[in-house]
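lol forgot to send this yesterday, sorry. struct tokens for the thing we talked abt
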């Protein structure tokens, strides 16, 4: 066989390779230019780009121009590795492949050598950067890719070839897709918030300065997807540092292209809306660097698509995990230890154990200490627990801590017919019912005494289950076991009073939970039926339910301080107390408290001016006749003075005491806000607090005032120096004008400064310039200027300070003509309509 044969492919010379690359580049540039001609061209490009987002904009253009309808492309070797070789005779699609020449280094002789020829010693020198290195030069060569249709692969093979490709065509799970967009926002440091003002027909808005975006609550889910992508593109591409580098049409073009491309990738067709929107912003408008605009759109779309895909993949994994967990939970539910098994011992003692339902069933079945539950195997868990408590009520109680979500009384036993053994009653309700029983028994005892008869008190033993939510540290239900309550013996009017008196060790959280339960039940009960039907417009302001108790100190530790009024402030949650003093030991009525006044001074008030006679006499008797060591709950009905006013005065007193005690004035934000509110209520100023607040009021505006004044002065001077025949003076004026009004509107819209304050600054600048003989004929202060004024940039295109995407009116697609805007324009806000 002859060894001479004709080659099918001739190696190209460097000049020929260069010409091929240049030809492809020109072809690409021509394609890019064509995308800006009609909405249909834009749609074709964006849809195509969504398929091939891993390729550069240049190569996307080349693929589209050479192979219409391409769906998935790869190199010859790629398809071969995947097991789907390219069909014989298929022609490759040309693309530009970046390459880099081999890097060189200078050896000890001073000669340049490629790094591939470096010795081991020279490689170490290169790594340590002890020799001079010249990086390789980037150049492009022509490469070839092939479409799916040019191989023997089928559409159903794509998931195996491209496992991350979303081929379903549409994503119907709005919540999952929204989470993906939230991930984009988080990745770019953007917050999704509620609109700061009424958006009207605008679909969304991007607040550039604060890196926030908002959606119109009237939007549909489909509109939200497209609009949020649009606003996130603004936030990503047009930041506070870069947004002035783009014209309004360029910004809207990029944002809507990104939104359309990403939506298209996930099978959401927004072309009817997006293409009309793009037409309104691009037709008749000049866009300078179109390739750069497309490149940034492409890069942003890639980032958005990959972020959403990662989120959707995680969501899918979580759903799968939840399904597995759900199946496991069904099997393990009975093994969860959420049943508090209580064994009643002598007196108020108990033993407690957390068990699962399965364990309780097993114990009840085999342990003879328990009374058996008939037909237990046929009962649901809840039915079984109810039956267990019924048959074991004398010795045991099983409480499901997942079902007890408020302080609840567990009645162990009671001699009163209104309460049953093992009965569970919300503590607020039980407190009121037992209070009524106590009142009735005491009344009956009084009547019986007149007849020289005896009425016994009703013995009751109970416990209080505190829900696990109150335990912030361990999340476990707590059982508070009480001594026997003898209803009607005169010691306590309510179980709540007994708890506060005998269980002082309880945490503040438990005390607060009990107080809230008691007060909420009492308040709800006291609302008359007819009141509920009244118009609630004139509903009076509710008074906070403060917890106020008076503690009589134990005998032996008393000096001049005999008791304390404890207050838990319902507003601040702070706990404080006031001492009850007695100087004249021979005078039982010499009991007084130093109350804070609104003038910032304390005044001694006798205790009988604070408490009504009934409670006052009990406290007085406990101090002088008893052993002390008792506590009494103080309700509004027991007081001559408003408890709310006393607590508020002491709240103010704590600030006064702190100001007097410390040398360096340092109050936290909460204290400052409380103080501001108190001043409006007529409390006297605290000098040290005012000194701390004053710098806060002046500090921030000072820097901003200087910036606004400086930019306004530059603008005024440029106006004064502007002449119609001097283009440079016009340029200077336009730039100064945009800089000033951008800063001004951003500051006002973000509530950093008021409109009135800006007017004052402008007047000060005008007054200063007037002294220099600089006056401007055109009066354009904030008070007088037309805030709908349009700034004319150098290229003749209109920009606005609050960019709004307006859908073109029918038959009026050309938006290049001047149209009157009805609202102020802000360069820092990209708004989509």
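and heres what i got for the seq, position by position
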């Amino acid at each position: 066989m002859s060894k001479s044969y004709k080659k099918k492919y001739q190696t190209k010379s460097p000049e020929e390779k260069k010409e091929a690359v240049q030809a492809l580049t020109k072809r690409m540039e021509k394609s890019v230019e064509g995308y800006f001609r009609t909405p249909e061209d834009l749609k074709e490009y964006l849809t195509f780009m969504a398929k091939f987002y891993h390729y550069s904009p240049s190569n996307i253009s080349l693929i589209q121009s050479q192979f219409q309808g391409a769906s998935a492309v790869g190199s010859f070797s790629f398809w071969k590795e995947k097991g789907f070789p390219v069909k014989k005779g298929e022609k490759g699609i040309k693309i530009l492949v970046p390459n880099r020449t081999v890097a060189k280094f200078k050896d000890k002789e001073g000669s340049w050598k490629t790094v591939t020829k470096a010795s081991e010693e020279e490689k170490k020198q290169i790594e340590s950067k002890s020799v001079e290195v010249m990086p390789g030069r980037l150049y492009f060569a022509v490469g070839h890719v092939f479409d799916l249709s040019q191989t023997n692969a089928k559409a159903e093979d794509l998931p195996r070839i491209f496992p991350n490709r979303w081929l379903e065509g549409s994503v119907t799970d709005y919540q999952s897709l929204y989470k993906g967009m939230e991930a984009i926002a988080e990745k770019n440091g953007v917050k999704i918030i509620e609109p700061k003002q009424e958006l009207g027909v605008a679909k969304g808005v991007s607040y550039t300065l604060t890196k926030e975006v908002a959606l119109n609550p009237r939007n549909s889910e489909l509109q939200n997807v497209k609009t949020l992508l649009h606003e996130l593109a603004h936030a990503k591409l047009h930041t506070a540092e870069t947004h002035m580098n783009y014209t309004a049409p360029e910004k809207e073009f990029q944002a809507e292209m990104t939104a359309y491309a990403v939506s298209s990738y996930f099978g959401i067709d927004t072309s009817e809306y997006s293409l009309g929107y793009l037409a309104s912003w691009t037709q008749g408008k000049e866009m300078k660097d179109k390739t750069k605009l497309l490149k940034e759109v492409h890069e942003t779309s890639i980032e958005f698509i990959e972020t959403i895909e990662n989120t959707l993949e995680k969501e899918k994994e979580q759903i799968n995990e939840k399904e597995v967990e759900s199946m496991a939970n069904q099997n393990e539910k009975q093994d969860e230890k959420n049943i508090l098994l209580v064994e009643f011992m002598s007196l108020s003692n108990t033993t407690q154990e957390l068990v699962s339902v399965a364990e309780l069933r097993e114990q009840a079945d085999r342990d003879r200490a328990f009374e058996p539950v008939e037909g237990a195997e046929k009962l649901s868990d809840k039915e079984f627990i109810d039956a267990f408590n019924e048959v074991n009520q004398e010795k045991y109680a099983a409480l499901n801590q997942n079902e007890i979500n408020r302080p609840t009384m567990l009645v162990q036993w009671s001699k009163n017919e209104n309460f049953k053994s093992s009965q569970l009653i919300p503590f607020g309700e039980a407190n009121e019912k037992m209070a009524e029983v106590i009142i009735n028994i005491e009344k009956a005892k009084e009547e019986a005494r007149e007849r020289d008869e005896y009425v016994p008190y009703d013995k009751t033993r109970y416990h209080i289950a505190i829900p696990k939510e109150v335990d912030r540290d361990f999340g476990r239900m707590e059982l508070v076991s009480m001594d026997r309550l003898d209803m009607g013996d005169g010691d306590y009017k309510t179980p709540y009073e007994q708890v506060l008196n005998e269980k002082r060790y309880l945490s503040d959280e438990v005390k607060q939970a009990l107080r809230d339960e008691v007060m909420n039940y009492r308040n709800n009960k006291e609302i008359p039926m007819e009141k509920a039907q009244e118009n609630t417009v004139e509903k009076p302001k509710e008074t906070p339910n403060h917890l106020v108790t008076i503690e009589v100190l134990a005998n032996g530790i008393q000096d001049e301080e005999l008791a304390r009024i404890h207050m838990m402030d319902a507003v601040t949650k702070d706990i404080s107390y006031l001492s009850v003093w007695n100087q004249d030991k021979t005078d039982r009525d010499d009991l007084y408290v130093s109350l804070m006044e609104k003038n910032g001074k304390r005044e001694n008030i006798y205790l009988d001016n604070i408490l009504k006679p009934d409670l006052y006499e009990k406290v007085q008797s406990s101090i002088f006749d008893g052993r002390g060591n008792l506590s009494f709950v103080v309700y509004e009905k027991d007081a001559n003075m408003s408890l709310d006013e006393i607590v508020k005065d002491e709240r103010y007193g704590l600030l006064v005491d702190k100001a007097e005690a410390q040398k360096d004035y340092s109050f936290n934000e909460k204290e400052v806000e409380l103080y501001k509110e108190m001043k409006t209520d007529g409390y006297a100023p605290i000098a040290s607090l005012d000194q701390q607040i004053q710098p806060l009021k002046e500090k921030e505006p000072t820097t901003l005032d200087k910036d606004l004044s400086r930019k306004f002065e530059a603008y005024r001077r440029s106006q004064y120096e502007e002449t119609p025949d001097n283009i440079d003076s016009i340029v200077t004026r336009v730039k100064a004008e945009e800089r000033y009004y951008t800063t001004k509107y951003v500051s006002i819209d973000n509530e950093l400064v008021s409109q009135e304050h800006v007017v004052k600054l402008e007047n000060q600048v005008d007054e200063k310039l007037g002294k220099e003989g600089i006056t401007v004929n055109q009066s354009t202060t904030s008070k007088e200027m037309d805030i709908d004024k349009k700034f004319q940039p150098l290229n003749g295109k209109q920009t606005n300070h609050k960019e709004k995407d307006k859908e073109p009116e029918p038959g009026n697609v050309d938006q290049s003509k001047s149209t009157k805007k009805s609202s102020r324009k802000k360069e820092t806000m990209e708004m989509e309509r």
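The chain has a mean pLDDT of 76. anyway ping me if u want another try
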